[in-house]
Every structure is written in C-alpha cells, then in structure tokens.
Amino acid sequence: MFLSEEDVANYKRDGYIFVKDLFSPREVEIMLDAVENDPTINRYLKGNLDGGGRITRLSIWHSLNNDVWAAASTHPRMVNNVRILTGEDVAFFHGKVMMKEARSGGAWEWHQDYGYWYDQGFVFPRMMSAFVALDPARAENGCLRILKGSHKMGRLTHGAVGDQTGVDIDRLNQINQYFEEVTCEMTPGTVLFFDCNLLHTSSPNNSDYHRRSFIIAYNALSNPLFRKKKLCSLEPCPVGSEDSILKFARQPETVGV
Ligand SMILES: O=C(O)CCC(=O)C(=O)O
Q: What's the gap in Å between 108 CA and the centre of ligand 1?
C-alpha cells in the first residue's frame, strides 16, 4: 500500500498517481453511511454555482474532529503516502465531501487547486489533494478529468466563473494541445493523489448514478502561510491506527449473498 520510488518519480512527472483500493469496501461503506447520516455533512454544506448556473454541492471543514472523516484523513495509508510523495511531513489543510448527485450535480470548471489556495496566503505550491472515490466514478456521472503533466506550467491566472474560481479560458484553449487529457474513472476506495498545480475539471452529472467523493488537502510543513487568519494547521498531521475507520461503523457489516 505504500508508494515506491518509481511511483514518486511518476507523480513528479505526471502530477498525479492512482492508488487502487487504498480503502477497503467496508471502509468505503462506512464513509458512504456517514455522507448520508453524519451531522458534520449538513453543518458545513454549501452550494456553489458552476459556469452553467448549476449547483455543485459540497461540505468542507478545516479541522480534524472525532469522526470518520478525520479517521480517513489521518489514516496511515493516506498520510504516509502523502509524506512519501511530498518528501517531507505534512499538515492537514481541509477535508471536503463532494456530492455530485445523480441528475443534478453541477460541473467544476478547469482550475488548479493552487489557483484557489494562492490567495489564501500559501507561499509555495507544496500542497496536494487526495481524492477518494466513494461511488464508482465514470465519464457518464461526471468523473474528474485532468491534463497530465500540466502542473509543470506552475500557477496560471484564475478568475471568477459562476461562484467558482476557474483558469483563464483563452489560455486554456491555447495550452491544452500540449497535454494528454486523462479521464479519471475510479472504483470506490481508489485514491487519486494530485499536485496542487495540476489542471482538472469535471462535467455535470446527468446520469442516474451519484458520484460522491471525499477529498483531503495537505500542506507541506515547510510551506508557510503569510495571512494572519490561518486556515491550515501548522502542526504535523497526526497518524491514526490501521482500524480507525472501522471504529465508526454504525451498522453491522453487509454480508454478501
Ligand atoms: O469533484 C469534482 O468533480 C471536482 C473537485 C475539484 O475540482 C476540487 O475539489 O478541486
């Protein structure tokens, strides 16, 4: 479950790496149960309009609480891989559950995460996201699409698109010919680790299938924040136990028939 030197080299070259089945079906089942029943989700829920006027719903928080989301964010399979890819210790920045419900979930415009985070005062782009598929993610239900290697351009200019922050579309139309577009179809439990300057987007979900995911953002400990309001922890992300997610099971294990 831990990434090799070759994986790290591929991540640096491409700006992303998939780890298939990083979380087990049972761990995913517990997280999906929490999407539907954990009050944290409703407490931090908000809706943003995409460029086409559709709502993208997400729930986002900036601290580790006593819940399954903290267990997943601090899980050794997660934190140790983020440390391996970053090459140093990391802090937890935020966690968010992306809803992308069947027939209603809106799009995410082309952007780099550092297009958002730069303005929050992070000095260097030493940051990454770990995208955990909770439902099967496919082209038809609006899975993530990325431009392989685009992180190497550094941060591009971003502006407002609906309620979102999107990359300058004229520039995108000029540069996209230089990169391969990868459609990130993922099975539940698979994790996509990606660099904060990797360009990515997703289409609306017009299908009959939800495409929910949990995304955790981490910041390298060596990356200072110059704003007084510190949205990100400055401490090393704690590392939990191997069975930490299972402790949040509310229901008996589903027995296959
Ligand atoms: O979940 C998605 O479709 C897009 C998410 C995204 O772009 C982000 O969190 O930066």
A: 6
